[in-house]
Amino acid sequence: MRLDLDEILGWLREEDGKRLEGLWAAADACRRATVGDAVHLRGLVEISNHCVRRCAYCGINVEHRDLGRYRMEADEILACAGQAVALGYGTLVMQAGEDYGLTRDFVASLVRRVKAETPLAVTLSLGERPDEDLRAWREAGADRYLLRFETSDPDLYERIHPSLPGRVSDRFAQLLRLREMGYEIGSGVMVGIPGQSYASLARDILRFSELDLDMIGVGPFIPHPDTPLGRADAGTGGQGDAGKSNLTIAQEQTLKSDSQVPATEAMTYKVVALARLVCPQANVPSTTALATLNRAKGRELGLSRGANIVMPNLTPVKYRALYEIYPAKACIGETAAECGACLTRRIEALGRGVGKGPG
Ligand code: 5AD
Ligand code: FES
What we know:
Helix 8 runs parallel beside helix 11. The protein is of the alpha/beta class.
């Protein structure tokens, strides 16, 4: 559906329950007509929580010094791939911080093994790696790459994503290069980052369609107390210490004005629904961050308002708590089998089936 900036803004600001029901219904009908009723399961393995970056929202950033760090062995990861097959998932998503301890060769050989030993599609989500790494992994057989651009506002982006020395961080350019390399590309944003205005979020949604994304992941920002944005969080409901605020003046102003996007469940559903409408064919997950805000119904409501994917966690339980990009993540103690069974039950209760194959 063609939506212009003002229409998107209108929906983001819409408070009328009846009209919002119309938005949910339009997104749900669009989802059914384009990608159908099947809900595809993508098994997620968080293969390392090491990271060299200092993203201001993220709990595994390098400045979080007292966090225990882990990096999984190839055989452990292959065992998770085996579980994905046994549980009927079509895709294995391997995610980590930007960890150069995961060398180009290690990841390439891992991808080769997964592709040789299983029928799984392979998605990588390993940060802003150099093109040579990305190309090697594509040649090894990786199918898809996920890299959220997080915000299309260049000033906000720069404030929350300090670059590595001597490197510029340009995720839009990187997404386009990934596509040229032959990857299917996924991206997305967080909803309610301190300093995110309605206008910038509306522009993010237009960017989804300009980039012609294959996958769009959106979730609420959840303040992590051991991060600059978690500590500074004043206006978005976190436990932040306003006295020690290290927000910029522009962020403070956005937070005080009525243009700050709230990091709420309702706002996240609006963005999920609008993502579906502007990119009818995309795969849109109902995210764990959404389930974290509403454990009882968050995933289901996402699936009923535009989403068609869920990402059950396959990470061994002993590592789960250490992959703490935000606190109190849903499903933190569930084994892969429990998580899979729970999601299947929830999907069937919605009258939707679990998709077969790579989806
Ligand atoms: N709250 C919500 N989502 C977060 N992410 C990282 N930190 C947080 C947080 N504090 C999201 C980012 C990243 C994805 C893997 O997790 O969007 O791209
Ligand atoms: Fe590196 Fe979050 S800061 S993954």
